[in-house]
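Write out this protein's structure.
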Amino acid sequence: MVPVLSIDTATLMALAGEAKLLSNVPERLAPGALAGERVSRQQGRGLNFEGLRRYQPGDDVRLIDWQATARLRTPWVRLYDEERERPVFLLIDQRLDMYFTTQGQTKSVAAAMIASLFAWRSWHDSDRLGAVVFNDDELAIHPCRSPKQNLGRVIDDISRFNQALVQRYPDDPPKEQALAEVLQQVSRLIPPGAWFAMISDFHDLDARCEAILAGIKRRCELNAFVVYDDLHLRLPAQGTLSARYQGLDACVVLSSAMQHDIRQSITQRLAEQELRLARLGARVHHIVTSQDLVRQLQKGA
């Protein structure tokens, strides 16, 4: 399998159809759900016609169905399902640590595709869309607006940051932009009741992140999409492992003990991340870069 190292705007824009397969992302109110079951903003009186009932004192006269009233010779009003908006806010990690793969697409490409699928899902659902795309020294913030205004801009920035990694890769950044710093800058821009999706490998999840996320959780629904390469599950029990970085080649002779230690270390790290995020009330979704992204997102919906 040829590694996919970067992705362009045209490819991300072409995900519109696949986004329709994510039928429950983000979660929407089920028919008949009680008002107040989730925080949201109401969009007018709604557009879905539910039925008719007799006019009662206090009803809005604008809701009178004049055809039914004339036919039945008594006032009847039209009822509508209340439609509610759920803003979508995406956090997309495109730091150098995400530029890694051993099979299939890099973590950064997987994150770009997941974010674009959710952006298109907001388009289909007419939910306001906001995002922050960031790398090691820059971030692009898009406050929540209509998807017609924001979708193209968000996808352009996702593509721009993703493709920049190819040029940045040979050189380590002078200083990595911490996840906590990004969360601090955008926390106030996430609307109450938003569906907040963080797409990252969470390698620097720390106490500062937890404190900020605890505050966000009081206003929003948290979703963490932990993107990782599953090399640790595919390592042979013994043999030679080759790697290349910054033009340098290295070989490591694997033993059964080393393979076991690598697998245990990474598995433990992923479990600890999940525990810390789950304690904050976040829904945690593990995403393997070498597997079909849409199917994984459907399973976690």
